[in-house]
Design a protein that fits this description.
It is globular and about 65 Å long. The termini are far apart. The protein has a single domain, classed as ABC transporter involved in vitamin B12 uptake, BtuC, CATH 1.10.3470. The chain is 78% helix and 0% strand. By secondary structure, it is mainly alpha-helical. It is a multi-pass membrane protein. Its main location: membrane.
Length: 355
């Protein structure tokens, strides 16, 4: 008597293909991603058009298609296009790094800076400015990259000491300890050297202003490699989200997955920090928005984060130009004002869920 009942319940419903709901979900998410890409295109145009001097959208499109050497064309190509392209690359990198970090640690409050990447890059920049007297972002970008990489390697080594693989808790503790030491070093240097502080504070605030395209050329290949690695980890991260034991039973090598993930976070966040300085809260906020749209599937969360993050970053950059005309507020300050309330709300929600 049970067999016919099971057969009827497990069979397809009349008029609905077996993969109908799954196909609709895939189409809905694809349409959402396409819509996000269209919004990103509009934000890019706004970033090129809005500033201390507003330029009509039609003129922006015309100058992009054919540069005629006019005053508007010079502003677009020399000033706004480099910062827009940098904002696109940095935003995508931070969003992808944030989603990857939260998936690796299974902590929705995790941030790319958890591995000490920001502190390592900042310490290296301070050392380059104080000891080598470098003052241009294109000059100390490689120092920032080296510092970010060294800090991540040290954190991973400490987090995995005595074990086959690092655990999220040990990584977080090691990252906090290394960041505290590096922050103390930064403070000691800038408090004793006024000229170093004057140069360092413009980088520390986080900005896409005044960075030449050469910075993007230097960091772009690393961003691409990091993005490819991150997107390739989507399926192992889905298995890891079910728990370590379940992940192992599904064939996921936890140590290898975490090592590749930390490498991708280092490349993405290190290159982004080297190019634009430490920009907070983008990597924390955007993955939550992506998960609210797509659900927990990392095959969708990662691409959505990669598109939504530059929307947030470029919008914050445009807002910083508008509210302080004829000057502007750096994008790192605007994202902090946006992200701090989100962090408080997330922390309160998790606390209420635990009560």
């Amino acid at each position: 008597m049970l067999a016919p009942t099971v057969a009827r319940e497990s069979g397809p419903r009349p008029g609905v293909p077996p993969d109908g709901p799954k196909r609709r979900s895939w189409l809905t998410r694809s349409a959402g991603l396409l819509l996000a890409a269209l919004v990103l295109g509009l934000v890019v145009v706004a970033s090129l058009a809005v500033g201390a001097k507003s330029i009509p959208f039609g003129t922006v499109v015309q100058q992009l298609a054919h540069f005629d050497g006019s005053a508007d064309g010079v502003v677009i190509h020399s000033l706004r296009l480099p910062r827009t392209l940098l904002g696109l690359a940095v935003g995508a990198a931070l969003g992808l790094a944030g989603a990857l970090m939260q998936a690796l640690t299974r902590n929705p409050l995790a941030d790319p800076g958890l591995l000490g990447v920001n502190a390592g890059a900042s310490a290296a920049v301070v050392a380059a400015i104080a000891m080598l007297h470098l003052t241009q972002p294109s000059a100390y970008v490689w120092f920032a990259l080296a510092g970010a990489g060294a800090a991540s390697v040290l954190v991973y080594a400490l987090g995995s000491r005595g074990r086959a693989s690092a655990t999220p808790v040990r990584l977080a503790l090691a990252g906090a300890a290394i960041s505290a030491v590096l922050d103390a070093f930064i403070t000691a240097v800038v408090l004793t050297d006024q000229s170093t502080f004057n140069d360092f504070r413009f980088w520390l605030v986080g900005s896409v202003t005044g960075r030449p395209l050469s910075v993007l050329y230097q960091t772009g290949p690393l961003l691409i490699v990091g993005a490819v690695i991150a997107l390739a980890l989507a399926r192992p991260l889905n298995a890891l989200a079910l728990g370590e034991d379940t992940g192992r039973s599904l064939g996921v090598r936890l140590g290898t997955t975490r090592a590749w993930g930390i490498g991708a976070v280092t490349l993405l966040c290190g290159a982004a920090t080297a190019a634009a300085g430490p920009i907070a809260f983008v990597g924390l906020t955007v993955p939550h928005i992506a998960r609210a749209i797509t659900g927990p599937d990392q095959r969708w969360v990662l691409p959505y984060s990669m598109v939504l993050a530059p929307i947030l970053l470029l919008t914050a950059d445009v807002v910083g130009r508008v509210i302080a005309r004829p000057g502007e507020i750096e994008v790192g300050i605007v994202t902090a004002f946006i992200g701090a309330p989100v962090l408080i709300a997330l922390a309160r929600r998790r606390r209420m869920a635990q009560l």
